[in-house]
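Q: Structure tokens for this one, please.
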Amino acid sequence: MRLSNLLVGASIAGALLTACTTDEITIPKSELYAREFIKKFGVIDPDRDLNSATHSEINVVTTRPTDVKVYADINGKRYLFAEGHKLSGTTPLTFDVPKSVKEVIVDIDGRLIKTPLGGTVRANSTGRAIWEKKDNVVEITREDYRGLTDEGVMAFKDYLPEEVDNIGKVTQNFSFVANGDFTIYPVYWCTASYNTLGIYYIDEEKNEMVHIPFYTNKIFPIDGTQGNLIYTFEDPYAEDYVPAKDNIPLIDESRPLDASVPLNNQELKPADFNNNGLTSFLDFQDEDWYIFKRRYILKLQEQHRYYFSGHPFSEYFDIDYLIKDSHFDPAKERKIFVSGIEVEAKDETHVNIVKLSMGPLNDWKYPVDEQDSHPSNKEVKGWKSRGIHVSIAPGTKFGMYIRAWYMGDQGIPKPSIDNVDIVRLPLDPETGLPKKDQYRRFYSEAKYNPEIGGSNVFGATYMYKAPTGTYRVLGFEDYGGDVHDLNDMMFFISSEIHQDIPDVNDKDKPEPEPYQWLIAAEDLAGTYDWDFNDAVFAVSATTIVDGEENGAKKTRITVEPLAAGGTLPIYVMFNGTITDDQGDGNGQELGLGHYNIGPELHRWLGGYYRNPINVKEPVASASGTPLSFMVDGEWSLTDEYKDRPSWTQNDVKGMGGFYILVNPGNSLNYMQMDISKFTGNLDDENHFHMVTPPSSFDKQDQVVVSPEMLCLESSWCWPMEECGIHEVYFNFESWLKGDTKEWYADPMHWDAQRVVKRK
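A: Here is the predicted structure, written as tokens:
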């Protein structure tokens, strides 16, 4: 929609800044509002910031003209905050972000680099590369953690036993053809090496093999965040954990465990073995018995020392909760573990153990960090694996590889956050193989691998049938030697079968959009219901820096109407310098830079001013077309007014020049719906009045502040009609008075039945 159709200059600028003079002293509506606000809520903290935006910057250093974008991840979604076109040299990029944001992601010609606010990013630096990376074919991002039981993690490695040549048991020379997105979950590693998992494909046009590394075992963490495969002390059978049916089971019924032994019945405390507080075994249900068996096995292993010698531990499944004995010599004997148990209640405090299966404790290294076991004296009950989301252009042939690093390697950098960037290797025109660089890589396609230990097979894949479906498992060998057990790093793909992965749909993964702040205002009409829904609109802003114009800076601002809960004509106003980027003459400053944005707010939402809109139902239904315009130079939603009315001279905070103008609708201008009829008079009984960011007035040598407008993060939901903001958001009052506690982010602290959500 063209700005010229909806943008009207306040033609009498001088009058806009002065109140009407009469013989009778009129108290401004803003001051009346502030007095009532104080009666209701008391004197608020004068330093309380009513604006959720904060202005920040980063510096980008490039040696050639480079396109740059600045993103931030907020509540699981990525948003755009700034753009730079053809930047060269050192360029500061300024932008607004929510106060909760501490770091941003800088896209430099497709390479993503994370930096804290205020930081400097260099285009030629390899430092701080993170998981999120992409080129024009492959994009790698992270997903949420997925819970797995300890048994589930162990089940993966059992199919490919340690120190056994597993060649011939799996598909071992393979590549894929991309049909769409999929997710890889790390589940296991058992190696002394540092290995980096990656995807490779052939760039036919450039005759290169492109390597995109994204996950390194033992780097905890790879990018300064929580680890990618971590243990938990939560019970997998507890209500807030992943249900058992979603986990891969331990027991392989075709291969029972080896021994059954009777145990004596001893008195126990039932409450120690369930999560429901039950004090009698006679009351135990199935879920309680599950928990009992896990905890009683641990108890047995702590109290008894069983030893077993000379048996191949890899033939058995392993719960491995046993705290290791410091005197245990694995070269001479292996400790026994309890691997399965069947029980029934005898009476309130005794259990009949019907069957107990036992086997040797294996000594594999848990995939936690550089240590080799669970933390001491704590029971690990589950794991969380962070998903690696892969998006590949459909039809692309690709494979998987690992880049191995052994202790003692000379001249090869140990994997770190500084060497996980995309690598392109030229292909030998005669052999079709990638030319060597300093790294050692093993590929899923055997033809790219050296022959070690009699084989060039270093990758494995097979289908694993679980209760929830069939998963494709990936395994990799990192050494070779006498055996290729192919289990040094193991992963699974979340799709049922690879061929059924849906094709990439660009609509499902749109480019990040600018972040929206919500501005909510009272109309000062005298009802004093404090619902802050009389005017609600969204504001987004993207800073744009043009390197070809000597770093000229503009800001693209978009305003979208959301709600009009009052019954008076109300207008969104802007005080600033609007630039007409369409060349039709509207770039001139009209009325000292005061502009009306859009039609009357009710009309903008398709209604009539006497009827409140989007404040009576739990989900907003009416919508209006967003309006965009450009502002020259530096702009921020935290800016104050350029031209501040004298009676608000004590204002200390701003909202980028946005304010509200209200037609009180009395007998003299009842039908004046058109902002063009505005005479410029303010705050007497016959004329328009202003709603601004925090208003203030002097009272007994004290500046008293009250909020007329709030600038909030996009997750905020506005109260329904006649529901006071303090009634809906329980911490609002304490926040006003200086409590630093967030008042609307936590759903536990507001009434979801009395707010309106965006559709």
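A few notes: Residues 56-125 form a domain with the Immunoglobulin-like fold (CATH 2.60.40.1120). The chain is about 10% helix and 35% strand.
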